[in-house]
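Researcher: We're teaching a course module on how sequence relates to structure. For the next exercise, students receive a sequence and then see the predicted structure as tokens, so they can try to spot secondary structure elements on their own. Here is the exercise chain.
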Amino acid sequence: MRPRAANVPSGLGRTTIPRPSLRRWEWLLVWIAESAGWLTNVEQRYVDAVLEANRGSRQASRSIRPWKAWFPVSRLSCAAAAAALLLVTLVAPRFVTYSNPAADVYISAYRGLEAGLVPIGRPLHVHINAAGLPNGPVSVQLINDQGSEIWIEKAFIQHERVDVTAPKLTKRGAYYIRVYSAAPDKTGKLVREYYFGAK
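Model: And here is the predicted structure for the students to work with:
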């Protein structure tokens, strides 16, 4: 028995397709539609799995190593360089000695009369006017305005002048230089006292 033909409209008129080939075409179209649905479902499950894996890896990376995110190698090297620079800037000047030139100080006024000012933070080359005192050994003492001794040194009067180098003064205020005569029993007598200020 011969299969019956089906009438299928076409743009050029009616075309006759045998029934068994029409069934094959219908079956093929159904299969394509089902496959498209299955592929869409598989594709959606793949996208969901990738998104879930990405979310899981982000959460795992945050929970496993949160401190590493703050300290990558580039930040650590910059932080180490900044710390080294800060260390050199703050600590190194304490170990460096600056050669401040000594200040020349000429003292000739007696206590109670006006005297000059000397700078603080610099050693002092003190030139004392010893007019009227005999040449010979003396002791020179530096005291503050409370009478506390800061420094004492042996010196000589030569040509009516005593030259000594005193340490640097660290505080502002009034200071006195006392000149003692050198006695054989090492108890000198105060022969002169000079006043000056430090600023």
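Model: If you want an answer key for the exercise: The helical segments are 19-64, 66-70, 73-95. The beta strands are 5-10, 13-18, 103-107, 117-118, 124-129, 136-144, 149-158, 161-166, 173-181, 190-198.
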